[in-house]
Predict the 3D structure of the following.
Amino acid sequence: MNRSASPRVACDSLVALRTATTGGNVLFAKNSDRPARECQPLALLEATRPAASRVRCQYIEIPQVESTLRVLGSRPYWLWGLEHGVNEAGVAIGNHTVFTRDKPQGEKLIGMDLVRLGLERGGDAGAAIDTITTLVERYGQGGSGYADSDFPYHSSFLVADRNEAFLLETSDRRWALRQIQETGSATNHLTIGDDWHRLSPDAERHAEAAGWWAGKGARFDFAAAYRDVSFIPPTFSSGRLRRSRELLEGSRGAVSEASMRLALRDHYGSQVYRDAYSSEDERYLSLCMHADPIGATTAAAVVRLPATANQPLRYSACFGPPCAGVFIPLYVEGELPKVLTAGGAENSPTCSPWWGFRELLDLIERDHERLGGLVRDEWDRTEKQLFEEADRVEAALPEQAAVRAELLSGLMDRTVRLCLERLGEIRHQISS
């Protein structure tokens, strides 16, 4: 790892299984924390039967599979892979930077490659995990995860489907897997100790050979052996992990899409960001993050994975930090409005929603406490309207796939048009 690079920690994910939610659905949520001005539009990857025998990932080529699944996700503009997403089979995946004693070397697979590959190839959570672990064991991890610096890292993954969820943590070619019971969350350090359910074949042997583990017959502790705290202090992620667990535990049995949205907007009890803590305080880095260059939330999603196919998969996307934005209900069925996929390195608010929300955040940052509250009130009213209409349309969906797709496409068009109109109005309102 390039130790001269600015320290960066990135991303938090949460999941609640059916027994923990109000509607009997699995709910998945993630904040993607990246460089503050790195545009992250959406991507809709169509199901395909690829003609090519190999596929080019970010840095390397690997063998292609016979067919891939349709995927809706969030992609930093310069990357092949995804930060998080959901596929047509109802599998959701998000990744997170983790720092381990294995140091990335050379250009291999990166975490965003593995999210996309797991979604394109995994018909359920188990198949997605098998895809990721097989590729990690074969190719390892390496190559920068940032366009503006040489900063390679390893990843963890929260993987969920309609029935179950798993936390997968990796260190180069080694990994540990733990099944989630009711609720769970992931952040930027290894948390799987001796409570793993599956382990890569050579994880313990590799740690022993490196002198990281001398358990002498004790059950192998993955985090104790592989976690590295020499570069990133534990306080950079310990507070966020504790907070995400508190929020999930406090809503146990009543977790909803709305409570997940609130969790992603959380600044230790406030939906409005306040610059109140020093960088030595673990509260400096909240779930909704405003700490560039260490990390800033640049995209978020809440995914509803219903128990049956009668209810559509709902992917609610937010551009930028959720405290300053609105979650837009979208669907894997139907056609995604193309404007949501627009955006690159340069500021272009007229054609890129991501940059439009970024300009709104620039205005809010003049006075976060006052303007942030005004904007939050406006978006809360809009968000309530959006989800009420989405629920009405969903309740009347027929069984015919083509008609469902047409109705959901129309809903997405109306929803996005309304959000962009409101974005312009709010920006005008607070710019004066």
Notes: The first strand starts at residue 12 and ends at 16. The chain has one domain: 12-338. Residues 12-338 form a domain with the Penicillin V Acylase; Chain A fold (CATH 3.60.60.10).
